[in-house]
Design a protein that fits this description.
Its main location: endoplasmic reticulum. The protein is an alpha/beta fold. It has three helices and five strands; from the N terminus they run αβαβαβββ. The chain has a five-stranded mixed β-sheet, with helices on one face.
Length: 129
Amino acid sequence: MAATGVLAIGFVGLLAVFALLRLFFVFRGLGKDRKPLARSDGTIRTLVVVGSGGHTTEVLRLMSGLSDTYSPRYYIIAETDQMSEEKVHRFERGKHPGKKGVVSLPFIVLSYCAFFFLSRNTDYNSSMF
């Protein structure tokens, strides 16, 4: 019983040391100059991974709240997920009516966003590892 208490106290002490080290490194880096997130024109490039099964709708709902500061947007979509691709195209055309895009395979580049298509491991009956 006493050994368990010693282990628990040691574990809590180790967690406290890690927490203090983390705080030290966070506060130490606050005053340093960092590379700004925004580019020279004030925009922030944004990567969006679009999934299937309702995730596309959720992601687009989140994206609708972002201003054009978060552009260009780069979408990663599975090659076989045509429904998500259509939803994202519809969403982007709605945000940028009248703008035309240029198609350049193997990915699509528009003036305000780009689409990258990836094959899925399950399409090849293989695992990720």
